[in-house]
Amino acid sequence: MISEPTVCLWCTTEISSFIRVRPRVLHNLSAVFLKLGYHVILFNTRGVGESSGRASFTGISESQDLRAVLAWAVEEIVHLDTAVLVGYSYGSLITSMVPSPKRLHPERIKRAAHILISHPLGPMASFITFFNTAKYTSAFDQVLADPGLDVLLIYGNNDQFFSLKRYESWVARCREIRGQASENPGAPLGHGAEDETIPPTIPIANAIGVCSTTSPPTRGVDSVNPRASVSTGPRGPRKLEEKMIEHGDHFWRGSSGTYLRNAVSDWVEKL
């Protein structure tokens, strides 16, 4: 059994064994969470690496894998009370399908957050989800409407695939959804699109790995433009915040990678 009370689950960007992206983004940010005392779980979804099964190419089944790993963490980590789900690029889409860990496991999780980095939008999102974006939008609307969940949206203004204007429109819509939920806090929330019972065995169990190394922290986020809106939840103010990072591209190379790490570190420290 693991004893630390916090966990960060990283959803990979790999779509299948044929389309692999192993960005250093995942490993660089893992050091941030480890330094803050989190256990970091990096895993492959079905059909990737040594994971069993086959990729769905819609991402919907892969979101169930993420939920299964979360359920595994809840069982394995003693006194677990905080869970942060982090998704980058394609992994951000998968993460956006999963409700707050606090809502899925209310008996254990007391604090929860989603961090979505370089979230795919528009035609690209439609293509890589096999034209299932409506299901993703519906599920993420429920995530945004949850007043007990902190949400951080991060993107760069030099993204190679998605324009700054498109990101700004998306963020504006996210704020609108969160604002409507704040005005109507009693509205019922579901458990996410394509909600199914999690199977008793985790299909990606062989690929689960818990990181155990640490790296020194970095500071000085000079090129970050944060904006936040606050909604009131059962435990007090919960945030929906965006961070647009100047000169950040989709792959977070060079100095923008440092700014990304600093932005995430500063935000997570305040959870």
Counted by DSSP, the helix tally is: 8
Shape: globular
Number of domains: 1
Main pleated-sheet profile = 8 strands, mixed
Strand content: 15-25%
The N- to C-terminal Cα distance equals 25 Å
CATH class: Alpha Beta
| Helix residue percentage | 25-40%
Count the beta strands.
8
Mean pLDDT: 75
Radius of gyration of CA atoms, rounded to a whole number: 17 Å
- Seen as an oligomer or otherwise, the chain set is single chain
CATH superfamily: Alpha/Beta hydrolase fold, catalytic domain
**Named CATH topology:** Rossmann fold
Low-confidence stretches: 13-21, 190-223, 228-237
CATH architecture title: 3-Layer(aba) Sandwich
- The succession of helices and strands, N to C, reads EHEHEHHEHHEHEEEH
Keywords:
eight-stranded mixed sheet, single chain, Rossmann fold
Descriptive notes:
With 271 residues, this protein is of the alpha/beta class. It has one domain (6-269): Alpha/Beta hydrolase fold, catalytic domain (Rossmann fold), CATH 3.40.50.1820. It contains 8 helices and 8 strands; from the N terminus they run βαβαβααβααβαβββα. An 8-stranded mixed beta sheet has the order 6-2-1-3-4-5-8-7, with helices on both faces. β1 (6-11), α1 and β2 form a beta-alpha-beta unit. α1 packs parallel to α8 (255-269).
